[in-house]
Structure formats: structure tokens, C-alpha cells
Amino acid sequence: MRLERRSKYYLFLIVALILGSSFGIPTAVPDARARDLSLPANFRFNIYPDPPITFDSSTAALRFFRAGNLILLKAKADTTEGYFILDTGAPYLILNMTYFRDYPSISFSEDGEQGGITGAVTAYAPTKLEKFSLGPFHYHNIHADRINLGHIESVKGVKIFGLLGLQLFKKFEMIIDYETNTIYLHLISKKEAKIYKNEMLKDATSHYVLPFVIQEHKMMVKATFGTKSLTFIIDTGAESNVIDSRLPNSILEAITVSRRVTLRGNGGAGVEALYGDISDLKIGDIPLGKLPVLVTNLEKMCSAYNTSCLDGMLGFDFLSQHKIGFNFVNRKMYIWK
Question: C-alpha distances in angstroms, 141 versus 70, 120, 132, 226?
């Protein structure tokens, strides 16, 4: 198994804690390439096996609680129950070190093979739960990383026990209804893979269907601006849409900047960015209208995934505009009209 460098978490933490302070409307976009977001160079994503899943029901409608623009779902990690952030930008289950520091760490060799249990607990140390339950779905012998989410808890005023990452939903269809604060989940069996269709999708004229891909632990969709093709991550853990400040001027000049904001990460250091609206973006043939975006440098994100660069993230300001769904088995996205 391969170990992969990543610091996407810290990008998530930065985006999740947008602290907007107006300094007037700047006349030009500053060069953000010189900015140092202080991302740790030694942080690595492990590749964990998919955990076995049992269920009391293959279908569930889960009510969620909102902390700002973040979706919080109640779940149970062994005997610890509390709220977890739905974060499709995270690769798998992440636990808040504050509440799981007493769990033993699992060591990994350089090729990613699991080693023995150690007594030491270090930052980001992987561990394993016997059982993790989300509604009627139960994951067994599930691996997880641990990080400190205390600063998000302070800002949001709620205990956050971890992040629900993409791996947890690989065998599911998920429909998010922000209007009713409900997430609909269906565990798709092998027999259903080609034929399952939610009742909400029976009317083919009610929604658009678009493809997405899952690569390097992230869900990506293609967008266009004029003749320019762009790649965006779909990230339910991002409170704002984000666009890379290193994109061509023809795209950046189309952004109507309204204010400067300050992004604060885990270390508390502030980085200035721009906030505004962009028009003329499309996903497939679907125009996104006037879309709020945060303009900041995503170079660290590119190096973390060790792939070609990503052009941005689509978060709450995009996802909440419509009822939206994802079939993670067939890699189809549904956007209601």
C-alpha cells in the first residue's frame, strides 16, 4: 500500500474558519503565491481498507444540525456519541484528538503495511475503532486518523467529535436536502448497483444528471469558464466555494470582488484572501449563475495530493442552492432544477 502526503485537512480548517473583515474593495488580486499557509510537510494520508458494514435498514433519512454552513450528523464511535462534520473533502473517518487521545496508535511501515499497537499518541496518529455507527449503518474495525479540531469547536460553539470522510459513503447513494435539514442514505447492494433509483429520482425531468470521478481520495467534477476547462472538488466540509488565485487573469478578472477576508488555520496565523462573485461558470451544460467564491492560493493543496493542480472547491454556497445527490457507486451527481 502507498502512503500519500496530504495537508488538505489544514486547507479544510482554513476554509471552515473564514473570518470576514472588510478592508475595502481592492483594485487588483494580490499574488497569493508568496503566502505561506504553514502546512506541515510531514503529514501523510494513509490508505485504509474499506471497513465491513452491517445495517438495521438499508435506507435512512437522517436529520442534520447546522453549525454555520457545516453539516453535523450524530454518530457513535464505540461508546462515544456526538456530532461529526459531513466532509466529503476528507478521505475517511477523522477523529478529534481531544476525545480519542486515549486510543492506542497503530503504526505503519513505509509501504503502508499495518504494524503493531503502540502506546504513544502523536498528532495525526492513526487508530482503530471496533464499531462506528451512523443511523442504522454500522462500520466494524474501522481505521481513523486523529487531529485537533478544538479551534473549530471554539468558533462554532459545539463539540465536534470528528469528520465523516468519503470512504464511509463509497457504497451509498446520498441526497442532501438543505431546506428540510435531511440527508437520505441508501446502502446500494451489488444486485442493485445498475438498477437502484430513489423515488425522488423517478421523474427524469426534475433534475440534472452529471458524472463525477473519485481520485486520490477526492470527489471531482469538471466545470467550464468560456473555453477553459476547470477541475473542482465537491466538498461538503467547505463553508465557501474556493477558486485558485493562480488561474488565468481572464477568469480572475470576471470575479466581482466585494471584500477582503482573513483565513485562520490551526496555528492561528491569518492569511488575507478575496471574496466576491463569479458568473458564467458551468458544470456540464448547467450554468451556475452568480456564484460566491473565495479567491486564495491552492498550491499547497496540489502538492498534498501529489497530482496535477485543482482549480477550486465547491462547498456550501454551491451545494445549498438546490437539493443535490450523489451516487458513489455509479459516480453520478443529481442536481434538482
Answer: 27, 20, 8, 47
Q: The whole model's pTM is what?
A: 0.84
pLDDT tens digit sequence for 33-53: 222 333 344 445 667 899 999
Provide the domain count of the chain.
Answer: 2
Q: Please report whether residue 47 resides in a domain.
A: no
**Cα dihedral sign, 109-115-120-122:** positive
In contact, 9 and 15? CB cutoff 8 Å: no
DSSP H stretches of helix in the chain:
8-16, 97-100, 150-156, 249-252, 299-305, 316-319
Q: How far apart are CA 304 and CA 297, in angstroms?
A: 13
Task: Residue 55: name the closest of 140, 128, 163 by CA.
Answer: 140
Give the domain extent around 126.
52-187
| Helical H segments across 78-201, by residue range | 97-100, 150-156
One domain for residues 84 and 122:
yes
Is 272 among the domain residues? yes
The b-or-e profile of 236-253 (16+ CB within 10 A means b, else e) is bbbbbbbbbbbbeeebbe
**Same domain flag for 122 and 203:** no
Strand partners, 74: 83
